[in-house]
Amino acid sequence: MSKIAEVKAKVEAGKTKLVAGLVQEALDEGDKAEDILQAMVDSMGVVGDKFSTGEIFVPEMLIAAKAMAKGVEVLKPLMAGDSASSLGTCVIGTVAGDLHDIGKNLVSMMIESAGFKIVDLGVDVPAQKFVDAVKENDNVTLVACSGLLTTTMPALKEAVQTLKASGLTGFKVIVGGAPVTPEYAVEVGADGYAPDAGSAAVKAKELVTA
Ligand code: B1M
Predict the structure, then answer these.
(1) Which of 29, 46, 48, 157 has the most CB atoms less than 10 A away?
(2) How many degrees, rounded to 5, is the angle at CA 16 between CA 12 and CA 19?
């Protein structure tokens, strides 16, 4: 089994103590950070499918997520650039009622590498907390809202609309997450949408430099 295949298998199996070491071994053997990351993202797809079919339950899903987070920690220094934060501050969070943070963390990492300073509000972030963060931090040019559940899409809408109704200016709002579509982003009044972490960084830069 290739090292990347081993990483994928151990993330799926939730082997939190093994994943970081295996990721490092894969890197040492010459595998690219992007390929290792993609393998772990694919693992989460498998985990989600197993959850959908009742083969595994929430605890197994959680432990697999923790295993992936350990692997991402190893990759982070290699993925994040060393840009001088010249594009301003990006406030990022997963919307109210939603505890999923792996995708949000990857988006945060890529947006940071595009040149933003990051203020990460974490998960389960109420709409007003996004607004407060714009007020409390210097030079906020972007707010990034992530949502992973169809049931929290209304919270995504509330976050965007509360930000837009706040009277605050000088920042753009980008939304994303598995159930979010470009059409939904337009419908809720977001300035931008991205389907994945890489394109979120590209879109973020485009939004604030336009
Ligand atoms: Co949950 N979960 N989960 N879960 N979980 C999903 C999302 C689900 C699809 C699984 C399934 O049924 N197949 C399903 C949602 C169904 C739906 O709404 N349509 C689901 C469910 C139902 C639930 C619970 C309700 C289960 C329950 O309790 N009965 C519950 C809800 C808890 C809550 O949030 N209130 C729940 C709980 C959990 C855990 C806590 C156990 C755990 C999360 C742990 C954590 O994040 N720290 C978990 C996990 C791990 C998953 C799956 C398996 C993996 C999610 C993930 O990290 N994917 C997921 C199944 C799946 O995704 N196939 C599932 C990898 C990650 C890199 O991808 O997050 O999509 P993703 O991020 C991508 C893009 O979406 C995009 O870029 C990222 C990177 O490319 N993106 C953005 C994300 N945010 C963006 C923001 C942007 C732009 C792009 O701009 C701002």
Answers:
(1) 157
(2) 75
